[in-house]
Amino acid sequence: MSLVVFESTKQIHCADCRQGPLRRLVREAGVPRCLDCAELGHLVYLPRGDTALTRRAHEASSLSAVVVRFHRRRRRYERMGILVEDAALARAERACLADAEARARRRERDRLRRAAEDIRFTAAFAAEILSLFPGCPADRARAIAAHASVRGSGRVGRSAAGRALDPPAVYAAVRAAVRHLDTEYDSLLMGGVPRFAARARLAPRIDAILDGWRAASDEDDAPADASGASGASARAS
Q1: Sign of the CA dihedral 171, 180, 153, 127?
Q2: How far apart, in whole angstroms, are the C-alpha atoms of residue 123 and residue 130?
Q3: Which of 126, 179, 206, 224 could bridge 145 with an S-S bond, Cβ 3.0-4.6 Å?
Q4: 76-84 and 44-47 as β-strands: parallel, antiparallel, unpaired?
Q5: Which residues lie closer than 8 Å to 85 by C-beta, 6 or more apart?
Q6: What is the residue-wise DSSP string for 128-160?
Q7: Which candidate, 96, 81, 93, 92, places its Cα nearest to that of 59?
Q8: Element (H, E) at 5
Q9: Rounded to whole angstroms, how far apart are CA atoms 42 and 35?
Q10: Any alpha helices (H) in 36-182, and if so which ranges?
Q11: pLDDT (tens digit, 9 = 90+) per residue, 175-191?
């Protein structure tokens, strides 16, 4: 069972040395005594708040006490902190500092790992855009991929389908980028046009841009015409 020390706002004096008014005191057989008379004066106070520090200091201290204060509105005693040996608190602080440094190093490693993952994922997303839309400018594909794949953004690139590079998700990201950057969609919304009405009005223009980006692969794969073939033969000869 833990020793209990009371915080008091009343004008209470020690029954032995008459020192007071006491901020902290113990009650022995209903008699108030100061910490020195109760042989607890050498302990140091650690306020509540840091659970790990409190636990370690309590474990390292051969003598400790719980500090409580009566809450008038709630009508109960509430824990305010603990009293522990100074050396125990110092050891606990060193241990927690080492943990904090380790956690900071781990957070930095995690940050670097996530940054590298994001770079790889954005590059893969851009490559998938160019696979679906060969006519899309490379810098535009990279910009779309970077915007769609921002970690924590909730955008399509961070959805499960987006992370799997599913074509419908990639298509949705490209279409959204064209809608916002190549049309007056945002202006229509600001002008009070309902979202679905604005999308319907601009759909033909967006489809035309996307069809143009897709058509590049068909043009690259088309066979040379007769004149081109004969010209090639003539150049070869």
Answers
A1: positive
A2: 11
A3: 126
A4: antiparallel
A5: 42, 43, 44, 60, 61, 62, 63, 64
A6: HHHHH-TTS-HHHHHHHHHHHT-TTS--GGGSH
A7: 92
A8: strand 3-7
A9: 8
A10: 51-60, 86-132, 138-148, 160-163, 167-181
A11: 999 999 999 999 999 99
